[in-house]
Amino acid sequence: MARTFKRQRQTHPISELNVTNLIDVAFTLLIIFMIATPLIQQEQTIPVNLPGESKREQQKPPSDTTFVAISIDRSGNYYYGSERMSLPEISRQLMAEAAKSKQPVIRIRADLTLQWQQVVRVMDEVKRHNLTKITFDTEAN
């Protein structure tokens, strides 16, 4: 009474594709973009007529760089990110940024029609808090 235990080979191909992992990745990317898009668009909503720039090669910042936008509109109103603030309030925000271990890059977005003195006031506040990374936003010609 010997018995042979042979396993039957599966001869038909598997026609199902497991897409669970692909769906997880797609939803993760969707969530990341849903969070990142409003943050990028917030500072773009302040109407500022930016000065033009020359057509030369731009340097790309490192991927871990954080940016803080300070905008000055045509009327001389100051904005920290998308929130309207006075210059002393912006100074307090800059003090908090200076206390962080990694300095952010301060993006100054000033309207083309402004007097330079208003931009210099912002630069003085940035300098007073020992923040050394400053950039000015311009429009491409």
TrEMBL record:
Keywords (A to Z) from UniProt: Cell membrane, Membrane, Protein transport, Transmembrane, Transmembrane helix, Transport
One protein family per Pfam: ExbD
Domain of life: Bacteria
Gene Ontology annotations for the cellular component aspect, listed alphabetically: plasma membrane
Transmembrane segments: 21-40
Gene Ontology terms: biological process: protein transport
GO molecular function: transmembrane transporter activity
PANTHER family in alphabetical order: EXBD MEMBRANE COMPONENT OF PMF-DRIVEN MACROMOLECULE IMPORT SYSTEM, TOL-PAL SYSTEM PROTEIN TOLR
Family named by the database record: Belongs to the ExbD/TolR family.
Protein name: Biopolymer transport protein ExbD
Organism: Lacunisphaera limnophila
